[in-house]
Amino acid sequence: MSTLVLFDSNFGNTRKIAETVAAELGNDATATPLAGLGQGGLEGVDLLVVGSPINAWKPTPRTQEFLDGLGEGSLRGVRAAAFDTRVRLFIHGDAAAKISHALEKAGARIVARPRGFIVEGREGPLAAGEVEGATAWARSIAVAAQGSGPSGTDVTD
């Protein structure tokens, strides 16, 4: 299974979660910044995970541009999940849910509930336990992606 973990990151926290998720998903999984996604970068991808920091109650502009560029049905047959990074004391928005909705609208089968990871302060670091939480979340994605059949949507916690 070809796996791609796409992310945008301002201070490295979202990158850390993306790299953790990719490492847990296996040898063929790669964590790639959205800025580094080339033309045709989604070709052959079976599992797509997209992450972004919350920016003004939504994904970053770069993430939103990527999502807006997905054509209806362009992710048909792809399993997907979404996450965001957010400040603990000022939870402002839910970028992960917005990303998940956009991926589903493009035809992806969502295999995990959108997940938010807490950052201490505006620039980080990640809160205690969040890297371990990302590992556990990635394991649930792997199980759901392997177990989901050709019909229906399998969403796990």
Automatic annotation (TrEMBL):
InterPro entries reported for this sequence: Flavodoxin/NO_synth, Flavodoxin_CS, Flavoprotein-like_sf
Gene Ontology MF, one: FMN binding
Highest taxon above the source species: Bacteria
Protein's recorded name: Flavodoxin domain-containing protein
